[in-house]
Amino acid sequence: MTAQSQADPRTILVVDNDRATLDLLERNLSVDDFIVHRAGSAEQALKALRTTAPDAAVIDTVLPGANGLELIEQIRAGHTEDAWSSDLPILIVSGRAEPYDAIRGLERGADDYLAKPFHYPELLARLRAAIRRSEGAGLGGVLRVHELAIDRHARRALVGGKTVALSAKEFALLAELARHPDRVFSKEDLLRDVWGFRSNTRTRTVDSHASRLRRKLALAGAKTRYVANIWGVGYRLLPGEF
Fold this sequence. Notes:
Elements: E1 11-15, H1 19-31, E2 35-39, H2 42-51, E3 56-59, H3 68-76, E4 90-94, H4 99-108, E5 112-115, H5 120-136, E6 142-145, E7 148-151, E8 156-159, E9 162-164, H6 168-179, E10 185-186, H7 187-193, H8 205-219, E11 228-230, E12 234-236
Parallel strand pairs: 1-2, 1-3, 3-4, 4-5
Antiparallel strand pairs: 6-7, 7-8, 8-9, 10-12, 11-12
Helix pairs in contact: 6-8
């Protein structure tokens, strides 16, 4: 019995327009004790999301109709009435292997990116890691820093008791910084731990998310200027003296 089968089986939505890839992933993920739903287009994927509650999704960027990046944006923009979670762990598997393609995928909201052709054991390891990160974000109760509260179980941030509307990645960035509010996290650390990015390719992903997060906290009434940019190093939650 595998480690996966000792707990409730995880449900995976696989979205790809290539039947051979769908067959391969369904066959292998099923052997590894996942429940697999498959879709050949963004439209089919949205129908599946409305009728199932997947624990993660594997999505190709090249799909008929809306492409994979547009599908990811729709998932991340999910509303409370949607059946799926807007912070669903998402692994892109794409035939487009240029660094910029990976950056675009991560900036649209994917948790990780794997180029085709891929080795199934690597895909499995990355998928399980994304699920662990997602589930780990819900453990440990509420983090409190001054008037800021981060409920990792409910995936909700509050300033003085007022809920702040954050995207999935903005919340994940805030929760990561709040674990050690005085620690300076390098951009490379944040790209790896929040976005699952494993390349030194230059990107403004962290900066753009940090800027939006800082602005939203301020608009919610935060008295502290959270998410401090430490020039040439990275970010920390608290600005320094407080």
